[in-house]
Amino acid sequence: MSRVRVLVGTHKGAFILAADGKRQSFKLSGPHFSGWDVYHMKGSAADPDRIYASQSRGWFGQMVQRSDDGGKTWAPVDNKFSYDGVPGTHQWYDGTPHPWAFLRVWHFEPSLTDPDTVYAGVEDAALFKSTDGGKSWAELSGLRTHTTGSKWQPGAGGLCLHTIIQDPSDPRRLWVAISAAGAFRTDDGGVTWKAINQGLRSQYIPDPTAEIGHCVHHIAMHPAKPGTLFMQKHWDVMRTDNAGDRWREVSGNLPTDFGFCIDVHAHEPETVYVVPIKSDSDHYPIDGKLRVYRSKSGGGEWQALTRGLPQKNCYVNVLRDAMAVDSLDKCGVYFGTTGGSVFATADAGTTWKEIASGLPSVLSVEVQTLR
Amino acid sequence: MIRVELPPSLRTIAGAGDEVRLDVGAPVTQRRVLDALEAAYPVLRGTIRDHDTQRRRAFIRFFACKRDLSHESPDAPLPEPVAAGEEPYLVIAAIAGG
User: How far apart are CA B5 and CA A29, in angstroms?
Assistant: First the structure.
């Protein structure tokens, strides 16, 4: 029988929620790595028992944990992320040159085919790769040494590479997103990169249509339609149908198009989910009503999903990596809040249920569908 | 034997007890103690000192004999009671935050 395993990273440890395919009753385990920030956990599609976790803390830096038994036990692997060569500088908040310095891993993206191969997106923004299950890491430095790299500036959360997407139809193609540099694509396995920000418009930078400088919060893709990507930018929900060469806005009738997370239905490539947030200064839903918005038309037309979600006095945020979908039928959607709740739907969004509460502030949510 | 006390989070990571005992040849310096600590517990590499620069992480402090040795040269000899194993060398997670 099918099962799901929800991997929840929080500011004070990691938790795992497990349920059968009905997804009505979830069993919580954890905390793992108690007291540490767990920015992200993700399982391998090639071996679901293989999970990578990013464990960090201001005092002690970065740890990388690996489980080979579905999260029951963990062992540390290599935590050395050294930039390739002399890293030079990027721009600091005030525009002055600032030396590149590793701070933490924001996101792990395991290979679609090999459990030992995994990408790591880090702060200060760079992409690393391991081909030995995390025992060693090497930078794909063509990204950081892009001609625009010295001009990248951090967003409020830091200069972080937070999104990594693999093209299932072409193993040489990857997309990444960096706050606040923008989106980039490689077509040669990470050797060279192209800034793919045409069509983005950001009023908070001197040239709103500049090649870089856009605060991309998250990007999602349906694996059956790899040329189409959906983006939640700082403000604006965007889509591209040519792999990022050109973006167009699909915010449509959203009550606000600021937000962090975005994801795509597992079986419907044109069904997209976002959680609109009031504004960049008020990081909570409008009117204290936690609403997921779903578009079944690839953006433009959006419908509020409220059943089972708090519709008063809810002033939480849903961060960029804190939404995920399972691949069961009907599609399950999961998201975690900065208030320590995890909500889930087992019917593609019609009804929602709080499957965990009282957790530390949720940083990330991933789900594994186990068959 | 040099006695080293780690903060609780690092004890958990290392699977170590309240106190770690290390063989360190003379002269006993902070660098040699930390080198021996990381050799005995490789998982601690990068958690106390930066991997590349070997500089103390910002919120880590080193105390011994009621003194803050955090800003001493890593190659300066440690106080004799530490070298003699009479007093522990303390790795401290500094108070930070509210």
Answer: 31
pTM of the model: 0.96
Confidence label for B95 from pLDDT (cuts 50, 70 and 90) = confident
> What Cα–Cα distance (Å) separates residue A316 from each residue in A23, A119, A285?
24, 30, 7
Residues A119-127, mean pLDDT to the nearest whole number = 98
Cβ contact (<8 Å) for B9 and A60?
Answer: yes
Contact A262, A219 (CB under 8 A): yes
* Interface contact flag, B46 A80, Cβ < 8 Å: yes
Considering only CB atoms, B10 lies closest to which of A58, A60, A62, namely A60
Phi/psi of residue A232, nearest 5 degrees: -100, 105
CA gap A272, A262 in Å, rounded: 7
Q: Which two tokens stand for residue A238?
A: 């965007």
pLDDT of A199 over the 90 cut: yes
Q: Which pLDDT band, with edges at 50, 70 and 90, does B98 fall under? A: low
Q: Indicate if the pLDDT at residue A7 is higher than 80.
A: yes
Which ipTM was obtained for this model? 0.93
- Where are the alpha helices (H) located in A164-274, listed in sequence order? none
CA–CA gap between residue A202 and residue A165 (Å, rounded): 23
Contacts of A60 in chain B (CB under 8 A): 9-10, 13, 47-48, 57, 60, 93
Q: Which residue ranges form the domains of chain A, and what is each CATH number?
A: 3-370 (2.130.10.10)
Q: Which of A35, A60, A82 sits opposite B47 (nearest CB)?
A: A60
> Which chain A residues touch B93 with a CB distance below 8 Å?
59-60
Three-state secondary structure call for residue A138: strand
Domain map (residue ranges) of chain B: 2-93
Which CATH superfamily does the domain covering B2-93 fall into? Beta-grasp domain (3.10.20.30)
B76 touches chain A (CB under 8 A): no
Tens of pLDDT, residues B16-70 = 999 999 999 999 999 999 999 999 999 999 999 999 899 999 999 999 999 999 9
By C-alpha distance, the chain B residue nearest A35 is B9
Q: Is B3 helix (H, G, I), strand (E, B) or coil?
A: strand
CB A213 within 8 A of CB A158: no
